[in-house]
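(Fold this chain)
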Amino acid sequence: EIIEQLNDDYRNDPAMAQAIGALELAQKAAGSAGELDAARA
């Protein structure tokens, strides 16, 4: 949600692009962990 609010210049900065990628990966990992917990229950 916050990422969508960033302007293109800021989003295309190499350091910011890397940070966005890390955030997206962390979100996927958190989602997978939640699914794993649900499967174990």
The radius of gyration is 14 Å. Residues 14-40 form the longest helix (27 residues). The mean pLDDT is 87.
